[in-house]
């Protein structure tokens, strides 16, 4: 088998809902990041043999195979194909997995795994025309599919997580994200609009708050339960953004004058309880470590998608992970979670973080709706 390596990984700064990227179509976002990727790598896009794109809500401006449309918008040769997939919040990470697997199998020399989501312009669940009530009644009779917010509340119940602990974790996410600004070599500054409609350059994640008032955070409502612990303050932000990872055959890349930055040690996906639905990150982490022949203590950087603070905190407690290693540059509570883009974006952020800190091994995992999780272990080269 061919050895598959990461050659480049980039993302846009994430815009807030109705924020700086509100007027940027998602296909344009993805085209921008694709061109930024190959420009950074000094790479001819004609050599890309597939562009695999994660997008969750594939409707409207994100429909009609946005991966292929973005390739054409980017002005890449028409011979470069593109495909779109939906593994919900793990879509961007799964796209990177599929790209790497194609290279490992020897079917592809170079591929791009990427993702995009404009949650401002394409509303969640618009692909099914509403909420879970639009799903097949037979399915709903077999599986108790509930809002992820209620799942996050049940996770907090199970691990006995208090509102104070979750709010403190959220505030720390913002603190770390603010402190890391200026270190994010994976970012591609992009044009956007300020509140008055003036053109600006968005060079950092828009949702990060440098100062969090704990007293104000404590007043936020708990929308899923009258006396719950999950709030907008300790959950991920609704965001717009795109990200892309260039994967190639190591031997061919070296011959072409490219520098491999990381290799894959493990790639896994698991199913989990579809009602609790967000706890798959625990078995996914365990399976990835087993596949790589590693232990928790071997990992230098853990990138866990902060869909809800209760997911990340329960994962940390269950696996006995040092808090300093978990999302060292903050997470989705601070920088946002553009659904289809997050998997590739966290990969780009983790690689940049490993390089900045001299770390070697990074593990990324993401909880996924309906009970799944993806996990990847990379080794910096």
From TrEMBL:
<dbReference type="InterPro" id="IPR002155">
    <property type="entry name" value="Thiolase"/>
</dbReference>
<feature type="active site" description="Proton acceptor">
    <location>
        <position position="367"/>
    </location>
</feature>
<keyword id="KW-0808">Transferase</keyword>
<protein>
    <submittedName>
        <fullName>Thiolase family protein</fullName>
    </submittedName>
</protein>
<feature type="domain" description="Thiolase C-terminal">
    <location>
        <begin position="259"/>
        <end position="380"/>
    </location>
</feature>
<dbReference type="Pfam" id="PF00108">
    <property type="entry name" value="Thiolase_N"/>
</dbReference>
<dbReference type="InterPro" id="IPR020617">
    <property type="entry name" value="Thiolase_C"/>
</dbReference>
<feature type="active site" description="Acyl-thioester intermediate">
    <location>
        <position position="89"/>
    </location>
</feature>
<dbReference type="InterPro" id="IPR016039">
    <property type="entry name" value="Thiolase-like"/>
</dbReference>
<dbReference type="InterPro" id="IPR020616">
    <property type="entry name" value="Thiolase_N"/>
</dbReference>
<feature type="active site" description="Proton acceptor">
    <location>
        <position position="337"/>
    </location>
</feature>
<feature type="domain" description="Thiolase N-terminal">
    <location>
        <begin position="5"/>
        <end position="249"/>
    </location>
</feature>
<dbReference type="InterPro" id="IPR020613">
    <property type="entry name" value="Thiolase_CS"/>
</dbReference>
<dbReference type="GO" id="GO:0016747">
    <property type="term" value="F:acyltransferase activity, transferring groups other than amino-acyl groups"/>
</dbReference>
<dbReference type="Pfam" id="PF02803">
    <property type="entry name" value="Thiolase_C"/>
</dbReference>
<comment type="similarity">
    <text>Belongs to the thiolase-like superfamily. Thiolase family.</text>
</comment>
<keyword id="KW-0012">Acyltransferase</keyword>
């Amino acid at each position: 088998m061919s050895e598959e390596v990461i050659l480049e990984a980039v993302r846009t700064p994430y815009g807030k809902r109705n924020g700086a990227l509100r007027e940027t179509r998602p296909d344009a976002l993805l085209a921008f990041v694709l061109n930024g990727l190959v420009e950074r790598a000094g790479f001819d896009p004609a050599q890309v043999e597939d562009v695999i794109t994660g997008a969750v809500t594939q409707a409207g401006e994100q429909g009609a195979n946005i991966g292929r449309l973005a390739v054409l918008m980017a002005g890449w040769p028409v011979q470069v194909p593109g495909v779109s997939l939906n593994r919900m919040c793990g879509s961007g990470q799964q796209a990177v997995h599929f790209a790497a697997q194609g290279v490992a199998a020897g079917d592809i020399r170079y591929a791009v795994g990427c993702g995009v989501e404009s949650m401002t312009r394409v509303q969640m669940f618009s692909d099914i025309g509403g909420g879970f009530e639009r799903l097949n009644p037979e399915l709903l009779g077999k599986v108790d599919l509930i809002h992820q917010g209620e799942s996050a509340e049940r996770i907090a119940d199970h691990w006995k997580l208090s509102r104070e602990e979750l709010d403190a974790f959220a505030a720390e996410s913002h603190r770390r994200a603010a402190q890391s600004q200026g270190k994010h070599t994976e970012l591609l500054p992009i044009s956007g609009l300020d509140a008055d409609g003036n053109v600006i350059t968005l060079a950092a994640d828009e949702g990060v708050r440098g100062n969090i008032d704990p007293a104000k955070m404590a007043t936020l409502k708990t929308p899923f339960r009258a006396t719950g612990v999950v709030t907008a303050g300790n959950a991920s932000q609704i965001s717009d953004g795109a990200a892309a990872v260039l994967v190639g055959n190591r031997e061919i890349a070296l011959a072409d004058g490219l520098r491999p930055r990381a290799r894959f040690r493990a790639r896994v996906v698991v199913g989990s309880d579809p009602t609790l639905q967000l706890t798959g990150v625990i078995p996914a982490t365990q399976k990835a470590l087993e596949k790589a022949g590693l232990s928790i203590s071997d990992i230098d950087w853990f990138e866990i998608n902060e869909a809800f603070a209760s997911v990340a905190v329960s994962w940390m407690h269950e696996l006995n992970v040092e808090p300093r290693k978990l999302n060292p540059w903050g997470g989705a509570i601070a920088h946002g979670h553009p659904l289809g883009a997050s998997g590739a974006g966290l990969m780009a952020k983790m690689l940049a973080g490993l390089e900045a800190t001299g770390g070697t091994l990074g593990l990324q995992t993401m909880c996924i709706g309906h009970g799944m999780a993806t996990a990847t272990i990379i080794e910096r080269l």
